[in-house]
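hey can u check if this looks right to u? its 428 residues, i copy pasted from the old doc so theres a chance i mangled smth
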Amino acid sequence: MLPLLRLLFSGRPIQIVVSASPARGPSGVGSGRFEPALVGVGGRHAFVHQTTAARPDHLVRGALRGIEAGCAVYVVAADPDEERSRGAAGWLRAGAAIESRAHPLFTYDVLAGPSWADRMHVDSNPQPDQDWPSQYAGAGPGPSLPGGRPPGAHRCFTFADFALLDPAAASHFARVPDGLPDESLVPVAEYLTSDQGESKRRLPTVVALDSSGASVRLVVSRALARATRECLDDWRSLRELGGVRNPYVERVAATLRDEAGRAASERVAALVREHEAELARIREESVAEAMDSLAAALVSGDPGVLSLAAPPAHRPRLAVSAAPQAAAAPAPAEQATKVEQTSGGFEDPFVDSELCTSCGDCLVVNGVLFAYNGNKQAYITDPASGTYQDLVFAAEKCPAKCIHPGKPRNPGEPGLDALAKRAEPFNR
C-alpha cells in the first residue's frame, strides 16, 4: 500500500494499473482484502476507475478519462487462475463478480467537480439501489427455489452464489440433509439481514444445480457467510459515497415527510375548529332571533310581527292579516283544498324556515337542494336539484322536524314506496 501512496502523492502524471481478484482471500472466501481502488480514492487527487475486461465499454471510457486527468489508478478484475478463466467460463466468472458485488464498478472522477456527488459514480452496477441484484423465482428461465419457497419470492445473487463458481470454495458448501426443519433454512441474503439472536438459530443457504441439472439447496459455512457480509458492507459504503440510498438523505426526507404530515393534520384540525365555532355562533344567533320574534308576537298578540323569511313560491303560504280582524269565511272549494293539505300530505316539498335552527344537516345531505336565507335559516332552492331520497333523508336528520318532503316528483326514482312511507310522518 505504501508504494501506491507514494506514487499517488508524487504529483506526477502516472497511470497505475492494478490487477485485483474478486475472491476475498487466498481460498476465495477469507475475511478482509486489500482495496487499492479505495486507497486511490483516499488520495483525493487521482482519477480512480474500478472496472473489468467483461465490460470493455466501461473500461475504455474510464481509460480515456484517466489519461485526460493525468494521474489515474485503474483496478481491473482478474481471475487468479488464468488457465481456468479462458473461454466462456472466464467471462461468466467476470460478470458474476460484478453481479455479486465482489468487484463493483465505480469511477472517482476528479475532473467532474469538487463534491462527492460530482465525482463518485456507481450507476454502472446492476440494480445499484439494492443490496444484491435479484429477480423473482419462477419468473422466467432458471431453476425454481426448492424447499417450498413461494412463487414470486426474491432470488438474490450474493457473494456466496459467486463462490459456487470457485472450485477452491467447495468445502464451504454442504447439501441440505433430509429431515432438516425447513424453517431453520433461509437464503443467505435473508440470513444477513436477521438479528444476531435469530441468525444463531438459522442456517444460510444458496440454490445450485447438481450434475443432472436439478435444483438443490446447499448450506453455506459461517466463514463464507461472514465474507458475504463484509462484501455487502463494502458495497453499502461505496453506494453511499455514490449518492445511492444515502442514509442522510433518507433521514432528511423522512423528517420532511413527517413535518408535512403534522402541518397538514394541524391545518385540518384548525379548519374543523373554525367550522364548529362558526356553526355554534350561527345557531346561537338564530335561536336568539327566533326567541325575540316569538316573544314580540306573544306580547302584541299579532303573529305578523314574526321575522319570517319569504317562503318559496311552491310552498303553502301562511295567511296573516295586518291587524286582528275576523277572517272571511273560505269558499267551499278553498276549504276542501286546505283539508286535503292537512290530512293527505303536501304535493310540493317545503321547509318551515322560521323553525330552522341552522344545524346544517340538510346542507350536508344536498348543498344544492337546500340553502340558507338571509336569517341563516334553511329553505328549498329548487326541488328538481335533488332526489326524493335527499328530501326524506334531510327530513329524518332535521332536529327541528321542519322539512316536509311532499310527494315524489320523479315516478322512476328507485325505492319510492319505502321512501314515501318514511316521508308520511313529516307531511302531516
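The chain has three domains: 2-121, 134-249, 308-426.
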